[in-house]
Each structure stands twice: as structure tokens, then as C-alpha cells.
């Protein structure tokens, strides 16, 4: 728990109930969702209590990389959400650690990054926040990079980062095209777009690990789900609001509210875990000479390119695509020339939802599935969309790729855990130099 | 029944304590930005973080006096406002929104990063910098006091008291400014920038002044928070808090001097009450932990806030006491 | 260079006295003077005026390849009412936006009393005494009518942040401004509404308020963008009277209008634009005889003023029309709107 007012004096141990073993999170989802909604609206329902059973809760993990093998003697510290230290241990000769915690709740696990062996760096932050369920051994994973990726000269490392950045940028682009089109057609800056990404990734994870569907069909199902959720957004919220004549600023704040609502609902239902998809096969990187790429990354790049080309073809060639561009360009003119604007906007939302879901799945492949993955990406999407020019589909594409490459390559000079800061800084620099973006027109910024 | 009373007491305490002061100050700053000038600052928490860390870093890392730390925090918030405002205030409102939300997230990531930890303490944050301030309390801060059925430590009481005085001063400042010709220009900018430009006012300058002023008030909020908790940790400054403050502002009524204060008190009471009551229900087994564990309860507040923000803007944009006639956020 | 005689940054009121002496003997009625001064001016595009307040030189503005404004040379006589007319999308509003700093041109310069305005921001232009109104009225909805008026006053001490905190420094000035505002409100028959939110006024009242607010700054040049659009006929006469009054007070008035009848009634000089260019200028009576005007303007639906959005829309079409014309093509403004006077 990181939220200020929540830090005031608790994580009280919860021993009155036991959550059934791993995987049941998935099954309990719907029931929990209903209860959470009921509770959130202030109506408590009476449900018989579960039987009590106290079991020790433990946080476990392993530190190792392909080249260095298990890493011994690294300090691992667990603190409670309030910041009180629970325990500090060192990893054993197998690189493993296990820390008993006083009860279920959220804990922050931090490893001492400075004591890692030469050449091994943490990818991402040096601490993880995990939620420990009652009686559970909660695994926690730290991404370690032993430098086998891009080992050698700085030049090669730059190429490696460039390829990584390309993958990441394409992924951002997939998510951002929808954001940009929604802005173009409705004027709405949708701050809840990140949640479309998260929901897509989560839905795919649920289908994948819960129902045992392989990841590719699961991803396709998630895209359909994402499109449906996008349509639900439009039909259930935005269209009625437009009909009410809600102003753009009000709509923007509503989208913020929606983003908060969804994001924390997801955290309650899904928890603070990081989960991978199952059945991915080997995650070993294949050497392509100048750079190394895991098969997932390669697939991710191929899928991104294919999908983006399809989107471009659709915008350029099909009737609905042309209508989208017309509505983006001038809504009133489009309406007066007989285009059904509401229908176009609905299609844009479905497309945006589907693409965001796909982006979520791709992000889940590389970074695992987390409750706030979409929100983190949202800011980079904004950077990409702004760089390209707010409201232009192709601008979003170009801008996102640049942002992705920039963020990855910036790790050449800045530490890995603040690489996103570089991306956000880029955003502000763009605003100074060229607020209309690369492809935007000056009239739009008025 | 006892649990219910306890929940009332806990909620009442936070609605009167430093948490409410924190959100009230954030919301007063946002009121200057959003309520009066129409600026969309979605990263108010960044100003608060700079305020809080201004004290924490000055005192613990550089060994400076507490009050110098206050000045450092205020200066840092001014710099942030200028950095954000210079590029974006000439542009449409969304650009400031995007830049501020990005800055809030970016600064937090920066402050908690490994490379910044020699200065900011990283994820562990900084502590032990409020001694000078607590020592000023006119009563014994090591004792506990009972106020209206709630228990307070002497330190808490002192911070809350000074905090509310600060809130009152800021309200007075806003009141003075908004009845002056200066405030009239701000309100006019909210209505239509171009009209104000055509009347010979330097809109950019006024927006910048508004951004700086609101940001400094937000920084004061952050200072109250870290002094009260005695620790400054980047993860305390999640940007979701900005939106809690927005909810407080709209709840109490934007563009009203006391709106954000009333809103913050009500919001904290409701949120804290729901929080405590839910925890009690879970602990008593009335809500099975299988469905909702006490760790989830902390998230409920944000779910509530998100829902509340949406419902308010759709159905009562003028706030709970507002006049329908002077409805905020007309079509723009 | 007239600017050489002037103290830099001097208020427009003093400029007027300095430069106006040549053509305006004291005590005369300004209207007649402007008309008289313009009597011998040939009816040619870009003709020099005896006493120009505003001079435009080679101004062009393009939007994505379409030329919205392309004016080679244009002078506006001081102390007169100059009507700027033209079909929808002729670039009149764009020209206004350029002259007042709300838009930046691709090329060109223009000056007011010899002082170049090209690089100035809108508020700097306004401070020189050139104020404008907007086609879509910009009444500040959630400010009262009186607050709207007070905002127009220039040089307010209380508008500086620090002095705002000390009411003593601005109270007296505020009181004087309030009196002035009430005088103007009485003149425009809005004094009974002084404490109402401007958003509750009717369209015509908003036009009046906007004009009155502009007058709070004691302007030298008033640029009115379609002051009659969306105003009911009863108020139109009153508005026209107010515009004439501005001239009587020695101000230079430039106004955009679609309606030829209105223009004929009050203008001393008329400039006709079509597709971004000035196609004719001369006294009102000369215009209806001008073949270019008849072709380009009277043929179009001149009685259908459009909103800004519509105008922008038509602007694009007009651009296409120019291109067509240049290739010997036919129709101008094929899809002109048929909506009547829309009230917004």
C-alpha cells in the first residue's frame, strides 16, 4: 500500500479467513467484483463468514541470470506498507530467499541493487510491491539483466536497444492509434485509455491461465473483448454524455474518474501481482548477429507491424476508414455530407478498444500482467500522440515509435529505472519546440 | 455498534486531522487553477511532493534549518510551475493536463529511483526532519490528548492546528485575490481567453501567476503531510491523490473560497468511514475475506473517488451546495 | 514615417492629436470630414488615403495550401467607418484576426499610425487602442454584466498580483471605472442588467455588451466582426446608431458585414473581399455598380451570415473555388449554407 492516507497505522494481520490456493483469484473474480461494487456504493451485504485457519505467510524469490547463475549474498528487505521493516535476509547459494511476514497484506520487497555482481543490473525498479494472501507463499520476481543482451561494444548495445525500442514503440503505437482517433473524432482526451490496455491484458491472462486457452487464441479473444469494452464505453457513457451536452473539460475529468474507478477495481479484483502468460515456450533470446531477440519479441514486432499496416490500409482504403478521417478532420462537415457520425465514433471506440487490448497482450508478453500496466503506458502514449500531433492517426504511429526507441535508448545514458522519466521529459520538450507535433497542423493547437 | 462508533471516531479524526488539511490545501490550489482560471492541473501531487521533500532533503541531507527547508520547498514548486507552464500555457487546455500528469508520475519515479536515493532516500524515503517544528508546540507533544472522543498525540494536534491556520490563511488570500481586479481577470480567462486578450490583458502572464500560486499552495499541503507523518516517501505521493483533491473541490464547489475546504472535510469523512467500516465488517467476518480482504479496502477509496468524480461531473458539476445557475464547466 | 514624430508607446489618444491635425481642423464633425476627405479618392484597389490609420502591405495567410487572405495594399481612413464586405469565406474574419494579433500571417506587414503591428500579441495590439469584437460574441458568461464592463478598463492597478492584495491601492480607480461603466451601460440600455450573469443575456444584448466593453478601453480603432449578426431587427437600428456614435466621437471603425443594406447605410468607405483578395473599394454607392463585386459577391447568398465554424468550412471551399476559377472553372461557393441569421 503506497497511498498516503492508507499508511496511517495498519497492516493488521488477517487470520480469520483463508483464500484458497493459487489460481482461485481467477474464479473468485466475478463474485468479488460484485461485492466490491456493492461495498463501494455503501451497501454491505451479509455473507456467512469463512472458517478461520492461521498459516504462516512467506515471501519467496530467486535471484539468478543465465550467465551469472544463482546470485548469493544479496540483501533482500521486506517492509510493510507503512514502511516498517519486517526482515532483511541474504540470498543463499541457490540465489533463493524466503522471508516470513506477520500476516496477509501488502509488502514492499527491496533488493540491494548495489551489491549485485559486476555486469548484472536490475531491469525496472529495485523494489516490488506484492500482496500476500493468507497462508500463501508469495513469489516475487525481479528482472535481472546480466548483459548478455547487447554484450560487447557500446555500438552493439545501441543496436540492441534500438531493436527493443522499436518493439516497444510499435506496441505504444498500437495502443495510441485508438487514443488519437478517439480524440480526433470526439475531441475527448481519454485518460481511461490505459485501462483499456490493462483490461485487454488481464482478459487474455484470464482466458489463457484460467481457461487454459493458448496465448494466441486468448489474445484474439481479448481483442474481441476489448472491442466490446470500447463499445460499452461509447454506448454506456460517452454517447449519453455528448447527448447531454457535457463540455470537453468535464468529459476529460469524467475520463479521469473512470480511469481511477477501473484501475483500482482491477487492483482489488486482480491484486498487486505480476503474472506471466502460460505456455509461452522458451524465453531464451535468439542471436541475430547484431542483436538478440526472444521469439516473443519477434512475434510482437511482426504482429504490431501487420496490424498497423492493416489499420493504415483501413483508414486509407475502406469507406469506414475514410469516414473516420473525415469526421476527424471536420465533424460538422462530415455530418452535413451524410456521414453517420455516431456510427463512425462507435467503430472508432471498438477499434481503439481492440487495439488497446492487443497492445496490452503484447505488453504482458514482455513485462508480465500488472494492474497498473496500462496507466504507466498511458503517459508514453500521450507522449507519442503529442509528438506525432494530437488527433492524427499517422502522427500517433510515428510519434509512438520515436518515443519507444527514445525511452529504450535513453538507458545508454540514464539508469534503467528512470527511463520513463526520459520519455516524459521528451514530452515536455516537444511541447516547447513543436506543440503541434510532427504531423499536426498549427491550427489545431489554438 | 462499537465498531460503528469507532468508525465514526476514526473518520471524524481524519476529517479534522492533517489528512484533511493536506487535501484541503491541494484542493485550494486546484481551485485557483481550475475553479478560477480554468487550468487543468492533473499533477498537483507533484507540487506537494516537492514541498514535502523540500523540507525533508534540506533538513536531513543538507543539515539546513527547518524553515529554510520550507522556503526550498516553495521555491521548488515555483520552478516546477514555471517549467510546466512556459511551454503549455500558450496551448489548448489538454496540453497542460498531459504535461502535469506526466510530470507527477515522472517526478515520483525519479524520486524513488536508485540513482536518486542518495538524495531522496529512494523507496525508503527520508525521516526525522520535523523535530524543530514539533518542538514549537506549546504543549507536551509526548502525551496523548482526547478531543471529541478521539485520541490525538500532542504532535498530531499541533500539526493539525498549524495546518488549519494555514488553510484559513490561504482561504483569506484566495478571497482577497478573487474579489480584486486581478481575480476578475482570472475568472474572465476561465470564461474565454480570447475575449480577455482582445481587452488588452496578458493572458499568458495571468495563467502563469495562477499556476505558480496554486502550485505553491499545493506545496504547503505536501509540507503539512510529511511533517505530520514524520516521513517523506515518494510513494506517498501517488497521483491518484490529485484526483481525490479534485473530487473534494468539485464536491464542495469549484470557484468558491470555502468549497475546497468543505469538500475535503466531507470527502475524507466519507472515505475514511467507508474504509474503517469495511475493515470492521471484514474482521468480524460479516464480509468474508475470501471476497474482500482488508488489503483491498485501501483501494476502495479510489474506486469511490473515481465513481464520485464521474457522478459529480455528470449530475452535479456545481457541487453539493452549488447554485445550478452558476454551473461550473459549461460547454467548452 | 509618421512614427518618427511619436513618442514610443504613447497612448493612442495622443497619437491621434499629433497626426490628425493635417486633415482634421478642430471642431468639425468627423463624419463629414472623413467623407469629404475620401470624396476625391479614386475608386481603385489599394488606393492611398489622405490620412490612413491602418496600412496593410502584402499580407498573405494560407491554411494547408489554401490561401485565406492575400491583400497587396490596403489603407483605412482615420475617423471614418470602413465596411469590409464579401461573401462567406472571403477571408474577412481571418484578416481581422491577423490585424489584431490573433493569427500570424505567412507574409506581410501592417501598421497602425505608422507603428508596425506584425509582431505584437493580441493584448499588445489592444493596448495600443485597437480593440475588436468577435463574430461569435464572447460575453464572459459567469461574470456579471458590470464585471464584464470593468474588465475592459485599461491600466488597472488592481490587476497586478501584489497590489490586488491591498485594496486601498485600487479602490478609487475601481470606483471611477464603475461610474464610467455605468454611463456606458446606460447608453447601451443595459444598466438594469448590471448584476445579471452575462450568460443570461440575449444574443443582441451580448453584442451590445461586447461593444460597450470594448469602449471601456477608450479605443482609437474599433474593429467589429459582424456586429449585426444574430441580432433581432429591433436591436439592429440601435446597434447601427451606436456604431455611428463611435464615429462622432472620433474613432476609426472597421466592421465586417454580410448585409449590403447595412453597409450602404453607415459606411464612409467600403472594401470588398472575395476569396481572400480585395476585389474593389470605394464609397458605398460605387460598390453596387462594380462588375467584379456583382459577379463575385452579389451573385452569392449575401444575406446568409454564417457562424465561425461554417465560415471556416466555406473558407476551404472558397480556396478550392479560387483554384477552379484560375483554371477557368465555373462555380463559386457551390455549397453555400442556406441557414438564416443564426443566433448563437
Automatic annotation (TrEMBL), chain A:
<keyword id="KW-0472">Membrane</keyword>
<feature type="transmembrane region" description="Helical">
    <location>
        <begin position="168"/>
        <end position="191"/>
    </location>
</feature>
<feature type="transmembrane region" description="Helical">
    <location>
        <begin position="344"/>
        <end position="365"/>
    </location>
</feature>
<keyword id="KW-0997">Cell inner membrane</keyword>
<protein>
    <submittedName>
        <fullName>Branched-chain amino acid transport system permease protein</fullName>
    </submittedName>
</protein>
<feature type="transmembrane region" description="Helical">
    <location>
        <begin position="29"/>
        <end position="47"/>
    </location>
</feature>
<dbReference type="GO" id="GO:0015192">
    <property type="term" value="F:L-phenylalanine transmembrane transporter activity"/>
</dbReference>
<keyword id="KW-1133">Transmembrane helix</keyword>
<dbReference type="GO" id="GO:0015188">
    <property type="term" value="F:L-isoleucine transmembrane transporter activity"/>
</dbReference>
<dbReference type="InterPro" id="IPR013783">
    <property type="entry name" value="Ig-like_fold"/>
</dbReference>
<feature type="transmembrane region" description="Helical">
    <location>
        <begin position="245"/>
        <end position="266"/>
    </location>
</feature>
<keyword id="KW-0029">Amino-acid transport</keyword>
<keyword id="KW-0812">Transmembrane</keyword>
<dbReference type="GO" id="GO:0005304">
    <property type="term" value="F:L-valine transmembrane transporter activity"/>
</dbReference>
<dbReference type="Pfam" id="PF13620">
    <property type="entry name" value="CarboxypepD_reg"/>
</dbReference>
Automatic annotation (TrEMBL), chain B:
<keyword id="KW-0812">Transmembrane</keyword>
<dbReference type="InterPro" id="IPR001851">
    <property type="entry name" value="ABC_transp_permease"/>
</dbReference>
<dbReference type="GO" id="GO:0005886">
    <property type="term" value="C:plasma membrane"/>
</dbReference>
<dbReference type="Pfam" id="PF02653">
    <property type="entry name" value="BPD_transp_2"/>
</dbReference>
<dbReference type="InterPro" id="IPR043428">
    <property type="entry name" value="LivM-like"/>
</dbReference>
<feature type="transmembrane region" description="Helical">
    <location>
        <begin position="243"/>
        <end position="271"/>
    </location>
</feature>
<dbReference type="GO" id="GO:0015658">
    <property type="term" value="F:branched-chain amino acid transmembrane transporter activity"/>
</dbReference>
<feature type="transmembrane region" description="Helical">
    <location>
        <begin position="66"/>
        <end position="86"/>
    </location>
</feature>
<keyword id="KW-0472">Membrane</keyword>
<protein>
    <submittedName>
        <fullName>Amino acid/amide ABC transporter membrane protein 2, HAAT family</fullName>
    </submittedName>
</protein>
<keyword id="KW-1003">Cell membrane</keyword>
<feature type="transmembrane region" description="Helical">
    <location>
        <begin position="211"/>
        <end position="231"/>
    </location>
</feature>
<keyword id="KW-1133">Transmembrane helix</keyword>
<feature type="transmembrane region" description="Helical">
    <location>
        <begin position="298"/>
        <end position="315"/>
    </location>
</feature>
<feature type="transmembrane region" description="Helical">
    <location>
        <begin position="157"/>
        <end position="178"/>
    </location>
</feature>
From TrEMBL, chain C:
<dbReference type="InterPro" id="IPR027417">
    <property type="entry name" value="P-loop_NTPase"/>
</dbReference>
<keyword id="KW-0067">ATP-binding</keyword>
<feature type="compositionally biased region" description="Polar residues">
    <location>
        <begin position="335"/>
        <end position="344"/>
    </location>
</feature>
<keyword id="KW-0813">Transport</keyword>
<dbReference type="GO" id="GO:0005886">
    <property type="term" value="C:plasma membrane"/>
</dbReference>
<dbReference type="Pfam" id="PF00005">
    <property type="entry name" value="ABC_tran"/>
</dbReference>
<dbReference type="InterPro" id="IPR032823">
    <property type="entry name" value="BCA_ABC_TP_C"/>
</dbReference>
<feature type="domain" description="ABC transporter">
    <location>
        <begin position="54"/>
        <end position="300"/>
    </location>
</feature>
<protein>
    <submittedName>
        <fullName>Amino acid/amide ABC transporter ATP-binding protein 1, HAAT family</fullName>
    </submittedName>
</protein>
<dbReference type="GO" id="GO:0005524">
    <property type="term" value="F:ATP binding"/>
</dbReference>
<feature type="region of interest" description="Disordered">
    <location>
        <begin position="1"/>
        <end position="29"/>
    </location>
</feature>
<dbReference type="GO" id="GO:0016887">
    <property type="term" value="F:ATP hydrolysis activity"/>
</dbReference>
<dbReference type="InterPro" id="IPR017871">
    <property type="entry name" value="ABC_transporter-like_CS"/>
</dbReference>
<keyword id="KW-0547">Nucleotide-binding</keyword>
<feature type="region of interest" description="Disordered">
    <location>
        <begin position="320"/>
        <end position="344"/>
    </location>
</feature>
Amino acid at each position: 500500500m503506497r497511498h498516503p492516507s492508507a499508511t496511517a497505522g495498519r497492516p493488521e494481520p488477517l487470520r480469520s479467513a483463508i483464500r484458497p490456493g493459487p489460481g482461485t483469484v481467477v474464479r473468485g473474480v466475478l463474485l468479488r467484483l460484485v461485492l466490491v461494487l456493492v461495498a463501494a456504493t455503501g451497501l454491505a451485504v451479509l455473507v456467512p463468514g469463512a472458517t478461520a485457519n492461521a498459516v504462516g505467510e512467506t515471501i519467496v524469490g530467486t535471484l539468478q541470470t543465465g550467465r551469472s547463475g544463482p546470485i548469493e549474498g544479496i540483501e533482500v528487505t521486506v517492509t510493510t506498507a507503512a514502511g516498517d521493516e519486517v526482515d532483511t535476509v541474504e540470498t543463499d547459494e541457490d540465489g533463493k530467499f524466503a522471508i516470513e511476514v506477520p500476516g496477509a497484506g501488502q509488502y514492499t520487497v527491496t533488493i540491494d541493487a548495489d551489491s549485485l555482481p559486476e555486469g548484472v543490473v536490475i531491469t525496472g525498479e529495485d523494489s516490488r510491491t506484492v500482496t500476500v494472501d493468507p497462508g500463501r507463499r508469495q513469489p516475487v520476481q525481479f528482472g535481472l539483466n546480466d548483459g548478455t543482451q547487447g554484450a560487447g561494444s557500446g555500438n552493439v548495445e545501441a543496436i540492441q536497444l534500438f531493436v527493443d525500442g522499436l518493439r516497444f514503440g510499435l506496441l505504444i503505437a498500437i495502443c495510441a492509434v485508438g487514443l488519437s482517433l478517439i480524440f480526433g473524432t470526439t475531441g475527448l482526451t481519454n485518460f481511461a485509455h490505459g485501462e483499456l490496455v490493462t483490461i485487454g491484458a488481464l482478459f487474455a491472462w484470464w482466458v489463457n491461465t484460467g481457461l487454459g486457452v493458448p496465448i494466441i487464441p486468448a489474445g484474439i479473444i481479448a481483442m474481441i473483448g476489448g472491442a466490446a469494452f470500447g463499445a460499452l464505453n461509447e454506448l454506456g457513457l460517452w454517447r449519453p454524455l455528448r447527448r447531454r451536452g457535457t463540455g470537453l473539460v468535464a468529459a476529460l475529468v469524467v475520463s479521469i474518474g473512470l480511469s481511477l474507478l477501473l484501475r483500482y477495481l482491477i487492483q482489488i479484483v486482480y491484486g498487486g501481482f505480476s503474472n506471466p502468460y502460460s505456455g509461452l515456450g522458451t524465453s531464451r533470446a535468439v542471436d541475430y548477429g547484431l542483436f538478440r531477440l526472444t521469439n516473443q519479441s519477434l512475434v510482437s514486432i511482426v504482429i504490431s507491424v501487420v496490424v498497423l499496416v492493416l489499420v493504415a490500409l483501413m483508414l486509407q482504403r475502406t469507406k469506414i476508414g475514410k469516414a473516420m478521417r473525415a469526421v476527424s478532420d471536420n465533424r460538422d462537415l462530415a455530418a452535413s455530407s451524410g456521414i453517420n457520425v455516431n456510427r463512425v465514433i462507435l467503430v472508432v471506440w471498438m477499434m481503439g478498444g481492440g487495439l488497446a487490448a492487443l497492445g496490452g497482450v503484447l505488453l504482458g508478453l514482455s513485462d508480465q500482467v500488472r494492474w497498473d500496466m496500462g496507466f504507466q503506458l498511458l503517459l508514453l502514449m500521450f507522449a507519442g500522440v503529442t509528438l506525432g500531433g494530437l488527433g492524427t492517426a499517422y502522427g500517433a504511429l510515428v510519434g509512438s515509435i520515436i518515443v519507444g526507441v527514445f525511452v529504450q535508448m535513453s538507458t545508454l545514458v540514464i539508469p534503467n529505472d528512470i527511463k520513463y522519466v526520459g520519455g516524459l521529459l521528451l514530452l515536455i520538450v516537444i511541447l516547447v519546440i513543436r506543440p503541434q507535433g510532427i504531423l499536426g497542423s498549427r491550427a489545431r493547437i489554438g | 455498534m462499537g465498531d460503528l462508533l469507532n468508525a465514526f471516531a476514526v473518520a471524524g479524526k481524519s476529517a479534522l486531522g492533517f489528512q484533511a488539511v493536506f487535501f484541503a490545501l491541494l484542493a485550494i490550489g486546484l481551485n485557483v487553477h481550475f475553479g478560477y482560471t480554468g487550468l487543468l492541473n492533473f499533477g498537483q501531487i507533484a507540487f506537494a511532493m516537492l514541498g514535502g521533500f523540500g523540507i525533508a532533503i534540506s533538513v536531513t541531507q543538507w543539515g539546513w534549518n527547518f524553515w529554510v527547508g520550507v522556503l526550498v520547498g516553495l521555491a521548488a514548486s515555483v520552478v516546477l510551475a514555471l517549467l510546466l507552464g512556459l511551454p503549455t500555457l500558450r496551448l489548448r487546455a489538454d496540453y497542460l493536463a498531459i504535461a502535469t500528469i506526466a510530470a507527477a508520475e515522472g517526478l515520483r519515479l525519479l524520486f524513488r529511483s536508485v540513482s536518486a536515493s542518495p538524495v531522496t532516500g529512494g523507496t525508503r524515503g527520508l525521516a526525522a526532519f520535523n523535530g524543530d517544528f514539533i518542538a514549537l508546540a506549546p504543549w507536551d507533544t509526548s502525551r496523548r490528548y482526547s478531543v471529541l472522543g478521539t485520541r490525538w498525540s500532542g504532535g498530531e494536534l499541533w500539526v493539525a492546528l498549524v495546518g488549519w491556520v494555514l488553510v484559513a490563511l490561504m482561504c483569506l488570500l484566495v478571497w482577497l485575490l478573487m474579489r480584486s481586479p486581478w481575480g476578475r481577470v482570472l475568472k474572465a480567462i476561465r470564461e474565454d481567453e480570447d475575449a480577455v486578450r482582445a481587452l488588452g490583458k496578458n493572458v499568458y502572464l495571468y495563467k502563469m501567476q495562477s499556476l505558480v500560486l496554486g502550485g505553491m499552495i499545493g506545496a504547503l499541503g505536501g509540507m503539512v503531510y510529511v511533517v505530520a507523518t514524520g516521513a517523506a516517501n515518494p510513494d506517498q505521493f501517488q497521483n491518484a491523490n490529485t484526483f481525490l483533491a479534485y473530487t473534494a473541490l468539485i464536491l464542495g464547489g469549484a470557484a468558491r473560497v470555502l468549497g475546497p475546504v468543505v469538500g475535503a472535510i466531507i470527502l475524507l469523512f466519507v472515505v475514511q468511514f467507508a474504509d474503517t467500516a469495511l475493515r470492521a465488517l471484514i474482521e468480524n467476518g460479516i464480509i468474508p475475506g475470501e471476497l474482500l480482504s482488508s488489503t483491498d479496502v485501501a483501494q476502495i477509496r479510489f474506486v469511490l473517488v473515481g465513481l464520485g468524480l464521474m457522478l459529480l461531473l455528470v449530475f452535479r458539476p456545481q457541487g453539493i451546495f452549488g447554485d445550478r445557475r452558476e454551473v461550473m464547466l459549461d460547454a467548452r | 514615417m509618421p512614427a518618427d514624430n511619436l513618442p514610443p508607446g504613447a497612448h493612442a489618444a495622443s497619437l491621434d492629436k499629433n497626426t490628425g491635425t493635417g486633415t482634421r481642423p478642430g471642431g468639425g464633425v468627423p463624419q463629414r470630414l472623413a467623407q469629404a476627405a475620401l470624396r476625391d479618392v479614386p475608386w481603385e484597389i489599394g488606393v492611398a488615403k489622405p490620412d490612413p490609420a491602418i496600412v496593410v502591405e502584402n499580407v498573405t495567410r494560407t491554411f494547408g495550401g489554401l490561401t485565406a487572405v492575400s491583400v497587396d495594399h490596403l489603407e483605412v481612413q482615420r475617423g471614418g467607418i470602413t465596411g469590409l464586405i464579401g461573401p462567406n469565406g472571403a477571408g474577412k474574419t481571418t484578416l481581422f484576426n491577423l490585424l489584431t494579433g490573433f493569427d500570424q500571417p505567412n507574409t506581410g506587414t501592417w501598421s497602425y499610425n505608422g507603428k508596425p503591428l506584425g509582431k505584437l500579441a493580441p493584448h499588445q495590439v489592444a493596448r495600443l487602442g485597437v480593440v475588436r469584437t468577435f463574430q461569435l460574441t464572447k460575453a464572459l458568461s459567469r461574470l456579471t454584466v458590470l464585471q464584464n464592463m470593468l474588465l475592459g478598463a485599461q491600466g488597472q492597478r488592481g490587476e497586478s498580483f501584489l497590489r490586488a492584495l491591498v485594496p486601498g491601492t485600487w479602490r478609487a480607480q475601481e470606483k471611477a471605472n464603475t461610474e464610467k461603466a455605468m454611463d456606458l451601460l446606460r447608453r447601451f440600455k443595459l444598466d438594469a442588467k448590471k448584476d445579471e450573469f452575462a450568460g443570461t443575456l440575449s444574443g443582441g444584448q451580448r453584442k451590445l455588451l461586447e461593444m460597450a466593453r470594448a469602449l471601456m478601453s477608450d479605443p482609437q480603432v474599433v474593429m467589429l466582426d459582424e456586429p449585426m449578426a444574430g441580432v433581432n431587427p429591433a436591436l439592429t437600428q440601435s446597434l447601427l446608431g451606436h456604431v455611428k456614435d463611435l464615429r462622432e466621437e472620433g474613432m476609426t471603425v472597421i466592421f465586417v458585414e454580410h448585409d449590403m443594406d447595412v453597409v450602404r447605410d453607415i459606411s464612409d468607405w467600403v472594401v470588398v473581399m472575395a476569396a481572400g483578395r480585395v476585389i474593389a473599394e470605394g464609397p458605398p454607392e460605387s460598390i453596387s455598380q462594380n462588375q467584379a463585386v456583382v459577379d463575385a459577391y452579389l451573385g452569392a447568398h449575401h444575406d446568409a451570415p454564417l457562424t465561425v465554424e461554417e465560415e471556416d468550412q466555406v473558407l476551404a471551399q472558397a480556396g478550392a473555388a479560387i483554384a477552379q476559377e484560375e483554371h477557368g472553372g465555373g462555380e463559386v461557393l457551390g455549397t453555400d449554407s442556406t441557414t438564416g441569421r443564426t443566433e448563437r
